[in-house]
Amino acid sequence: MLVTGIKSKPVYAPLQADTAGRYHLMLGHGVGGAPLLSLLDELGRSGPLSAGRACVLYVADSAAADNFGVRFRTSASDVRFFDRVAELLAEFRTILTGSFMGTRLYVAGPESFIGLAMKIALEFDLNKDEIRAEECGTLARRVYCIHCRATTEQVRTNIVKCIDCGRHLIVRDHYSRRFAAYMGVMVDAEVPGELPPIKENFV
Amino acid sequence: MKHAVTIAVEVTAVEQVTPLIKHFTLAPIAGGTMPAFSGGSHIIVVMRRANRVHRNPYSLMSPPGRLEAYEISVRRMEESRGGSHFMHDEVGVGSQLEIAHPVNLFGLDKIARKHVLIAGGIGITPFMAQLQDLHAANVPYEMHYSVRAPEHAAFRDQLIEQEGDRLRMYYDSANELIDFEALLGSQPLGTHVYVCGPAGMIERVIGTARACGWSDSHIHWEQFSAPPVGDAFDAFLARSKLKIHVLPDQSLLESIEAAGVDVPYLCRGGVCGFCHTKVVELEGELIHNDHFLSAEEKASGKFMMPCVSRARCKNLVLDL
Fold it and tell me: What is the C-alpha separation between B148 and B169, in angstroms, rounded?
């Protein structure tokens, strides 16, 4: 079974401003704050970052010892902080509901965070040419069990025990934008209990 | 590549819908039904005249679910190379024609959250079938239809009855212009805009949408260019080892076909890119008239779209 080298694995790139956009919406998690600050600098050179032009939603995490809060507040007028990713995503959805064509989305943070944001963006028909994402922070994956359909979070190893059905899943590079998760397939179906070596691939 | 087999059809009804537009109903001579299609599709109508063959693209206008016959509308073009005059003057009930299978280069986006349709004049044709598709979909849309004057508004009564307040008419004769800035400046996320009409209108819609921050994946347009008339020129087909002469009112593609060489095509209007041809040698200049090649590709002189583009040259060798 093909585990790596699968085309659906998302590709990310350092954030760059798309000045063709009229409204710039930025989502950051943890160390994702740094690329967003550079982006605000870049955008700021083409005009003031008023609340009608740019908005930052940010969740800190314990790994990023940051003073992003202060620096964001001095860079843009509409900056909103959240304690949890779920709260940030709820606000993100509310903003998209009232947004207009001309919006550009920028996401910076761990891939699982990017994936969850993209999943919501997809519901609003934001296309590739309206979204830019930069991966930074942990490579831990969300893994979708193709047998019981549960999603296991924060997976760092090539083999993981499904949080719901308990099957041992091999984590493939096959990525679903709709589920914002990588596909996990039972690895010891032929010989129960016989597992390949477990490695920490996604740290 | 050999083209898909054409379908023999008979004209079963002709209606003069405006002073310049005729509407034709085409039923399969063999009986049965026509191939299924989606709104925005076009067909190529093959018109065989004594010494010339015309192949012109026309949008399908009948409801996509109704396949007993296709319907198309043809506007009489002042500077016709013969196709639209042939349809207007020589085709009547009982005439037999050939058509190519439908192709859709102007389909509705399937995951759009809203559609904004903009038509200028005869540009209403692809929307007639798309509107039928939209009636079956649970997605908001609005239709903006601009014409010279009420008597030139093809299908106006039908559209007003069918679309109600989702339709807005604009008449040049009453100085009513579409305010593109207002229309495109505050559309909800996930809106797609579609425009079909005169070149100037298409350019304004694309330009205004981009200025309002729309990304290109949400902007759709269709404009079939008629092959422009120009000076006669010669070309050599390298692989076929044939010399061809292109008449002033003949397209390069038509001339290649008349020599018995098949070139793949879908639209014959400079849009689809199928007839993309490599230029092997050129002494002179290419006259690009297509909407497919990028400015860089056009400037390189290495490619051309023979359906609408010509050359002013001493020597032109094509990889055909």
Answer: 11
